[in-house]
Amino acid sequence: MSFQTEIAKRRTFGIISHPDAGKTTLTEKLLLFGGAIQEAGAVKNNKIKKAATSDFMEIERQRGISVATSVLAFIYRDKKINILDTPGHKDFAEDTFRTLTAVDSVIVVIDVAKGVEEQTEKLVEVCRMRKIPMIVFINKLDREGKDAFDLLDEVEQKLGLSVTPLSFPIGMGYDFKGIYNIYERNINLFSGNSKKNIEDTIAFDDITNPQLEKIIGEKAALELRDNLELVSGVYTAFDRELYLNGSQQPVFFGSALNNFGVRELLDCFIDIAPPPKTKMAEEREVKANETDFSGFVFKIHANMDPKHRDRLAFVKIVSGTFERNKPYLHVRHGKKLKFSSPNAFFAEKKEIVDISYPGDIVGLHDTGNFKIGDTLTAGEELNYKGIPSFSPEHFRYINNADPMKAKQLYKGIDQLMDEGVAQLFTLELNGRKVIGTVGALQYEVIQYRLEHEYGAKCTYENFPVYKACWVEAKENNEEFKEFKRIKQKFLAKDKRGQLVFLADSAFSLQMTQQKYPSVKLHFTSEFGD
Ligand code: G4P
Predict the structure, then answer these.
(1) What's the predicted TM-score (pTM) here?
(2) Which H or E run includes 521?
(3) Which atom of ligand 1 is the closest one to the Cα of 17?
(4) Does the annotation list 23 as a binding residue?
(5) Domain end point (choices 247, 272, 297)
(6) What is the whole-number distance in angstroms between the Cα of residue 105 and the centre of ligand 1?
(7) The last residue of a domain, from among 246, 272, 298
(8) Same domain, 197 and 153
(9) Which domain holds residue 326?
(10) Could you read off the pLDDT of 243-293 as tens digits, one per residue?
(11) Do residues 512 and 482 both lie within one domain?
């Protein structure tokens, strides 16, 4: 098969949702369609449940599972589908943000009863800013939930999207009869039977046909006709270009648990979702069909076996082919590296592969060479952009609790930060180290891992910070010099050496912005693009 055909058949995407909306269930049903797994229940739940906050064995067990399910690949209708797993737990939101830099599109799952929830809002905002094509799947139609139109309004308003329904429910909950597939123009009747398959679909392209009454009953037929009229009156018709540039989001309805509406979603996804895209590097735009390999590290999974400091770096291939045992340039280090056992992912297994294509993810064994955001190429000096750090929500000083183990502690902190577990800030004033995290859970994870993997002990001390802001200013500017002098106590360097202002309150942030207007304060580490 030609290189071009290989690229065209790849669909790399992520499923995002608020915990419990049905992401795991939907993933599993998609894998069933691909024949990648034989039975429901085969995909282990990759959730770090709230109850697990102080149960470290549970966290470790979950980490094990999440390596296996980091990338789930399968073939469906001759397309190679790569699903990149995103942790639903909010304390791992940063992980999810980074994974979103490696997807070409996303499916957003929303619970019909709960509507748009907090975590969905945050994640969709990131996708919207990056103009990632999104399909919305409204799940759990077998339960009573919100009215479909109200929900579509909520999605538009809370998520800032422009939706267009490509299917529409017929009834809901106890009264749920099925869905009308606007995209394919057919009716899919719901029997509450999880073995539903394609044969159950009735082609129905003329909604005025009186046969409709016979199939779904008089009342439901009337309602469906009204609803579809409203849909075509209110929403702009589906336009693939708009979807691809992030300006329109098709919506499907269904029930993942009952495997209902999932085939429709998948079939449409295969048709419309984008193959691997062109990506911006700092130096230039890189097209997927360029022959020279390039890719970037978006995730690092470490120390599955604490006895070996083994890490798996996940690389998204942007262009060219990645081949086993071929030397590639690690751009940040300026040296060539060869990989004798790159892993590819298939369903919930990983195996060694000789060649991978744009859109694919390879897992590379690493002994500490990689950081998140690193670029690998066939030789060209490229640096992929787009893996910013966001301001953490929590900040604590980290102290060494065992003076004999200082070296181990610093090595541990260094490696955990490379993995992206949390962010490290070093105060300008006294060199003290501050760990910033998205959720409180990470502090326990860090403490546990430092002890079990590096033999080091740490304690924490509260450090009240409202927000970390990355500073942008001209070096010799007088105002900047004064800012640095007056605010010295609040300044730190992040791991890349960028200057960060740690504002202790919203008020002080506002005052600082007013007083030093030429000093720009950013909430993410990447700006100016
Ligand atoms: P998540 O990954 O987004 O966190 O959600 P997950 O798939 O684990 O689903 C959360 C709960 O919602 C699960 O129930 C799951 O069975 C249920 N669910 C998913 N899709 C549907 C659906 O279409 N209809 C209904 N009625 N329920 C659905 P649970 O009781 O929390 O877990 P489990 O014991 O069933 O695994």
Answers:
(1) 0.85
(2) strand 520-522
(3) 3
(4) yes
(5) 272
(6) 23
(7) 272
(8) yes
(9) 279-377
(10) 999 999 999 999 999 888 998 999 999 999 999 989 999 999 999 999 999
(11) yes
- Please identify which residue in the block is written with the tokens 């942790």: 87
* Nearest in space to 298 (alpha carbons), one of 376, 357, 390, 381: 376
Q: Is residue 384 part of a domain?
A: no
Q: Which of 16, 17, 20 to mutate to test the pocket of ligand 1 (most atoms within 8 A of CB)?
A: 20
- Are 342 and 226 part of one and the same domain? no
Whether ligand 1 lies within 6 angstroms of the CB of 86 is answered as no
5 is in an annotated binding site: no
User: Could you read off the pLDDT of 360-391 as tens digits, one per residue?
Assistant: 999 998 888 898 889 999 999 999 976 777 88
| pLDDT < 70 regions, the chain | 36-69, 88-91, 192-201, 203, 303-309, 347-348, 386, 527-529
Would you say the CB of residue 43 lies under 6 angstroms from ligand 1?
Answer: no
Q: Are residues 152 and 69 in the same domain?
A: yes
Report d(CA 362, CA 159) in Å as an integer.
Answer: 32
For residue 453, which phi and psi values (nearest 5 degrees)?
Answer: -105, -25
Residue 351 lies in a domain: yes
Q: Which of 15, 17, 18, 25 to mutate to test the pocket of ligand 1 (most atoms within 8 A of CB)?
A: 25
Both 24 and 113 in one domain: the answer is: yes
Same domain, 249 and 101: yes
In angstroms, the CA 424 to CA 433 distance is 7
Residue 352 shares a structural domain with residue 317? yes
Total domains in the chain come to 3
Which phi-psi region, left, alpha or beta, contains residue 126 (left: φ > 0; alpha: ψ -120 to 50)? alpha
Would you give the DSSP letter of residue 22? S
Distance separating alpha carbons of residues 428 and 326, to the nearest angstrom: 43
The verdict on whether residue 21 carries a ligand-binding annotation is yes
In a domain, 9, yes or no: yes
